[in-house]
Each structure stands twice: as C-alpha cells, then as structure tokens.
Amino acid sequence: MDVKKILYATNLSKPTFRVFDGLSGLKSLGLQEIILLSNNATLDLFETWKKRLGDLGINASIKIDPGNLSTSVLNTIRGNNISLVILHLNKKEDRTIFGGSALGNIIKTTNIPVLVVDKDEKGLNFSSKGMFERVLLPADWSPEYEKALQYILDLKELISELELVNVIFEKLSLRDVKQITEDMINARKMCLKLGVSTEYHMYAGEVSEEILRAAHEYESTMIIIGSMRRQKFKDIFSGRPAYRVIEKSPIPVLLVP
Known about the structure:
This protein folds into two domains: 5-120, HUPs (Rossmann fold, 3-Layer(aba) Sandwich), CATH 3.40.50.620; 134-256, HUPs (Rossmann fold), CATH 3.40.50. The two termini are 15 Å apart. It contains nine helices and ten strands.
C-alpha cells in the first residue's frame, strides 16, 4: 500500500506533534508529503512542525484557513490525491457527528480513509512502534469489514497485535454461535499465515459499548472500522455503531470506506 500524501486537519489552537510520532512508520510505506491544515493553530507552530517533518524526510506544506474546517478539508482533498485524512479535534466541542459538525460533514462526504484523533493525549498510548501497534477490528463479515481487514493487512509491517472482536447483539442459536466461532478461528488463521499476530474475542451487548470495552481491555492503540461509501445523512443521524465508536472513543479511530 502507498500512503504518499496525508492531509492533517485540526481545529485546535495548540495541537501537539504526538500524532505524527504515532504515524512515523508510514514513511516505510511511501509517505512523502503532509498537508498541515488549520482554522485555529498558529503559523509559527506549523512552521516548527514542517521543519521536524523535513528532518524525518517528509515534505510538508501549510494551509491556514480561518473558515469552516470541513469545507477547507473537502476543498483541499480535491485535486491533491490525498491517501489519508487525519482529523485532530476536540470531540467535546465537536461533540455530535449528527447534523453540521466538521467531523460529520467530512465523514459523510469523502471516500478517503479518515483517522479521527481526539484532543486528549491520554488516548495516544502507543510506544515507539506507533499508532498501529495494537489494532482492534470489529468483525462482522460484512463487505465493509472485509475492506477494513484488507487495509490492515496492507499495513501489517506496522502492526504488532491485531484483535478481532465480534459483538453478539441479539439472541442466537447454538448453530449460529458455532458458525461465528468458526469464522473467527478461520480469520485468525488467515492473518497469522500472512504474518500478523492475531487473537479473536466474542462479546455480547450493545455493539459500540462492547467495542470500546474491548479496546480498553486489550489496550488497543487504534480501532479500525469499515464504512459504506458516501454515507447518507440518515445513516449518520441514526447513530450507527461505527459513528458512536468514533464519537466516544478516547483512542484514535480509523474509518475505512
């Protein structure tokens, strides 16, 4: 996988460089350039970051736009061949992804993977291996799950541990449970064969809550979730599990379309 160009966008006045510390491994996958976009941070801060990224062999350009963040992000995506969008936000202020928030507008509009990082650095609990060190993937065998799994396998050299988590949210027959278990075992075997250290787990309850519980219990550094392309407003407004996880997760969440 080539991740050649990243768009980093923030509405924070004093973001830290910690996010880029967690993504340094992407340099080995072809990362060449990062566009730094803000409607609130200072030019001096981004100039410092630009120099630090240059020292890592990554080109950086700066865009300060005091206007609407989601509009600026979508305008920057056009014509720039962006591989990944990073949204570094204060989710308490941009609290709901319903309606017209920056996060909601970007998610429902773009077809590019979006990594959402909260302001609180307590959620950035990775070691020197980076943000992809311990990944949690909700497993439901949907086409969206398959795309997210493939994305993870393309990043396998950055991943130390993959946790596959299936959440049972309705009453199932014994036959259904056996089938899920067999599917989990087969998925684990496939990942192991491809060189990714993998474990599987089964939880029961409300899907988003159990995903967050699992991420906490296994000390995940990132949650990766597959999503449908071109999300409709009604899908975001209905609060589907993926969006509730994004809204509530203290750790970074990567949404793969």
